[in-house]
Amino acid sequence: MATQWAVSVSPHVRKGTTTSQIMWTVSASLIPVMLLSIYNFGLRALFITLASVISCVVVEAISQKALGRPVSSKDGSAVLTGILMAFVIPPGVPYWLPAIGAVAAIFINKELMGGLGFNVWNPALVGRALLTASFPVYMTAAWIPSRAVSNVPIDQYVWGGLDAVSTATPLYVLRHYGFEALTQQFGSIGTIYQNFFVGFKPGCIGETSGVLILLGGLFLLLRGIITWHIPVSTIASVAVMSWIFGGNTWFSGDPLVHVLSGGVMLGAFYMATDYVTSPTVKPGQIVFGIGVGVLTVLIRLKGGYPEGVCYAILLMNCLTPALDEWFKPKRFAPPKQAPVMATK
Amino acid sequence: MAGVTFAKGGVHPAEHKELTEHLAIEEMPPPAEVALPLSMHFGAPAKAVVQKKQEVQEGDVVATVEKGLGATIHSSVTGTVKAIEPRPHPTMVRCDAIIIERDPAAPPRVYEPVDWLKLSGEQLLARVKEAGIVGLGGAGFPTHVKLSPPPTAKVDTLILNGAECEPYLTTDHRLMVEMPQKVVEGAKVLLKILGIREAVIGIELNKPDAINAMNKAAEAASGSDATIRVQGMTVKYPQGSEKQLIYALTGRSVPGGGLPFDVGVIVQNISTTLAVFEAATLNKPLYEKVVTFSGRGIKRQANLKVKVGTVLSDVVNYLGGTTPDLLKIVSGGPMMGFAISTLDVPIVKTSSGVLFLDKTETDVSPHGPCIHCGWCIEACPMGLQPKEVAIYVEAGKGHLTEKFGVFDCFECGCCAFVCPARRPLVQFARLAKMAIKRGR
Q: How does pLDDT run across A205-216, given as a tens digit for each residue?
């Protein structure tokens, strides 16, 4: 038999990065956040995250089997969804809760929409939104105080003991009791900045550490996986909006507290930048980020929830196709254009 | 030298030019038999003017094009026509070819230099046409047609394309290093044909030796009749694409559907310019050319001067054979070239390189779904949206993609090169163009 060679269409060389490399790189960039969360909330944070990852992978595999698609667990997208979904739910929820979120995130939101690349909304946030609507008590009260303050053993809450725990997130305090109550509970404003930046505060599993999310985000920026447009426009608009409207009088809010609270950092670097559900062209991405930031502060200050990042991103996800249509890339010398005789 | 480049998109594939860029051009001994496809140019196939068993001399006309676009074909060896039959073709799968068996006793034909300065522009243009010269960069557009812009066009600049932006390929590089005077002389012939005096030679900065050599030759040749200068260009693919090259060197934008002469420019490739030089100064037709044979799938890499019509298996034997890891053979560069399935294809006029890629160099893994990363949009030098076109085509709606400007797509491959899902975006664009023409 004659020797046979591969025949395929050009180009015959490829840049290295593949879809699964992107997914695994993003997942890996969250390891420091996970480690700090284990220190902050104890081993329960790790086990909830594992429950979420396993649920997502299993739900994806079952959905794909049922829908007659090839099972694509290896591409890492379900793992990343699992990690991100766990990172936006409180550490004190029951272990079965992420499984329900996974059904919403993966089966309904992703596989029924056509699989990877066809979902309208960010899967992790769909999971969180469904859990918040269905299990409001768990999702708004299952907080664990930072071990940096409580000094309990690392395995304290692994098998329960959560009923005795009572704490509130900074955003809840800020929403219901005001800025003074915040400083009473979490220390002087200097201490607040410091602890919020490092991550020693109650909150969702992976959202507390501004610095580690920032480092992870910078790593993704350097690797060329994300660009600055969405994170910067999101964070900047949260800062500006909260400065203008966040205080007792205009222009007296504390932008840093708002940026470092809740899911702003995680949302800006990891959720709003999701390729599938965010615009592809830079000007559209900036408008998208501004929309996320404005809606976040609007929900925080005027809405029924203390936190608004999740819904802000989900709402802006709906606008993604429109933003892609409005901000098309500028074509190079399209037809019927008068010849440009510029001299260089 | 500070480099210029085009504004939009572009990518930086690994160059792999180190495999051949320092290897001097080497003449391959003529093969026992050549196969000259009747289609080696843009336009309808040429018609054979020889018959089976007819004896032909090296350089004799064996096929002509009577009307429409096309180029004359000359025998690359002295010998006997053995057959006129379909043979494998690097881009057309199969095509009728004139098979000529070489007479081993015949000496190589020698061409006497002629004083081209005595010839008029029209006479030189006729020489180019008689020599069967086509654009050697890949498209094979007949050069005499390109050199005859309509009288309404106000051409003021000749651009010599020394970008050679495709990875692996080093033929133009070696020509510029080894025979810069001939290239510059060819440029002067082209200037005379066009009746202008400005020429710019664009060379990417990864070829400093070529820039040096060409600079010296250009300075020596510039005078009252011609101004020839070299412009370095920042390395970026697809710099050698006409529209990108013209923008980089002159700041002028050729509109979609337009041609370079619409903005006063004519572009010629380095190898083509050398062919013009040989046609004008030696009256020698185009029937041999320098081709890069590279990649890790062949025992020895080389820049070979080969006879047009040399069958690839003869070249492979000359270079010591292929390696066991050979995975894919590509005619042309790795970004735009065609994969070929047999070593029976001949070298044609437009062959710039043949690459023998092993599994470390090429990737044949299957493609996944689009994740809308937008990298293809960033990479597209024409500012198009390859991912949208692909999704339309996948959904059976390729005929609705004209709004995305698919006809501006020149299939450079930047989009598919960066695609993390390995999607064959160039193929989707081709299918879209076909669907639009078909209307469904």
A: 999 999 999 999
Domains of chain A: 19-326 (1.10.3430)
Identify whether the C-beta of residue A114 lies closer than 8 Å to the C-beta of residue A9: no
- Rg for chain B, CA atoms, rounded: 21
Contact A334 B255 (CB under 8 A): yes
Distance CA B314, CA B343 (A): 9
Residue A2: what pLDDT? 54
| Short-list A225, A219, A205, A201, CA closest to A146 | A201
Collapsing DSSP to helix, strand or coil, B293 comes out as strand
- Specify whether the backbone of B410 is left (phi greater than 0), alpha (psi in -120 to 50) or beta: alpha
Q: The sheet that has B265-269: what strands, in order across it?
A: B227-233, B198-204, B157-162, B265-269
Q: CB of B327 within 8 A of CB of B357?
A: yes
> How far apart are alpha carbons A251 and A242 in whole angstroms?
8
pLDDT of residue A169: 87
Query: Which chain B residue has the Cα nearest residue A334?
Result: B256
Closest C-alpha to B326, from B361, B374, B366: B361
Q: How far apart are CA B237 and CA B346, in angstroms?
A: 28
**How many helical (H) and strand (E) elements, i.e. helices and strands, does chain B have?**
12, 17
Alpha carbon distance B408, B244 (integer Å): 12
What pLDDT does B1 receive? 62
Task: Mutation target for A interface from B154, B200, B329, B363: give the one with most A CBs within 10 A.
Answer: B363
Q: What is the Cα–Cα distance from B197 to B215, expressed in whole angstroms?
A: 17
Instruction: Say which residue the tokens 């013009």 belong to.
Output: B276
Domain residue limits, chain B: 112-282, 375-438
- Write out the two tokens for B15: 């160059």
Contact (CB<8Å) B364/A275: no
Grouping H, G, I as helix, E, B as strand and the rest as coil, residue B14 is coil
The identity of residue B305, as a single letter, is K
Contact indicator for B70, B41 with CB cutoff of 8 Å: yes
The verdict on a CB contact (< 8 Å) between B328 and A12 is yes
Report which of B164, B225, B171, B229 is spatially closest to residue B195, judged by C-alpha positions: B225
Place of tokens 């939104």: A129
CATH code of the region B112-282: 3.40.50.11540
Label the pairing between strands B353-358 and B302-307: unpaired
- The phi, psi pair for B326, rounded to 5°, reads -55, 125
The list of chain A residues with pLDDT below 50 reads: 1, 338-340, 342-344
pLDDT attached to residue A151? 87
Which residues in chain A have their CB less than 8 angstroms from residue B262's CB? 339
Q: ipTM of this predicted complex?
A: 0.92
Residues of chain B with C-beta less than 8 angstroms from the C-beta of A342: 251-252
Q: Is the pTM of this model over 0.90?
A: yes
Which regions in chain B score pLDDT beneath 70?
1
Q: Which residues of B285-312 are buried (b: 16+ CB within 10 A; e: fewer)?
A: bbbbbbbbbbbbbbeebbbbbbbbbbbb
Q: What are the DSSP E strand ranges found in B295-421?
A: 302-307, 326-331, 338-340, 353-358
